[in-house]
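Feature request, filed as a ticket because there's no other form

It would be nice if the structure record came with a short human-readable summary line next to the tokens. Right now we just get the raw output. Example of a typical job, pasted below so the devs can see what we mean:
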Amino acid sequence: MKVSKSLYLQVFGIVVVVLALFRCACPEVAMTKTERMQKDSLAMAGGHGGASTTDTITTRDIVGNIPTATQYVHSPEPAVTYDKAFVPHPIYSVPRFKDCFPDSQAVHLSEAEKWGVKPVTNRLDAEKRMSELVYIGANPYFYVDNLKSSIPYLVPRASTLLNDIGRAYFDSLYVKGIPFHKILITSVLRTREDIGKLQKRNINATDNSCHLYGTTFDIAQNRYKTVYDPRQGFRREVQNDTLKWILSEVLRDFREAGRCYIKYEVKQGCFHVTVR
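Raw output as currently delivered:
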């Protein structure tokens, strides 16, 4: 059935009018993503509007009264803001990394056997242990790297330690006036199958690795995940060495508090951490 040109134009005109009226009633439908972000930011700056899920974490989520550990919000301000009277705490680092984090494999292994699960044979065996393990792949305080020789699971005690380290690191960045960056987790739970493959290219991979027990994780020394800032995007404003110095202070405090053992591994480029 053919539709006449005049009827087509009439229907088209009606549709245009309806869409115009709808846009007037709900102008946000025509906004770009950036415009919506700006609108949300302005609304919250005035105390209105709800939180939305994004990759942005503001100081209100990390420091002070935090409603939930995973709340993400848009913010019209930079990730780190201070009042005029704020004086950043100095960065001291630690005297010598090897001296501050000297714990041997034997010490780590003793705690791993005490608090960990029975060594996991392979990935299929790991799936049967999910009642004993906690998934750590998604967290606002740290970032899990693309794991090739391990899987993102820890025993609850170690998971709590890692979460506390990540949060303490954010707190330390805040009081020192440093933009937020997440620590990077490079190795977690390894199966015996993983260990066998890893030994072919890594001389430090032992048969009875602490990573078999779900009590141990590695934190990268000079790689960090920049937290998105609405005004500055993902631009890095601080060097890796500075972030490493601050991380070393945080790790030293946890070690001295009796929460963990730590080995500074130069060749592997990480802090090897086992829960106590």
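Something like this underneath would help us a lot:
The CA atoms of residues 223 and 253 lie 21 Å apart.
The longest helix spans residues 5-25.
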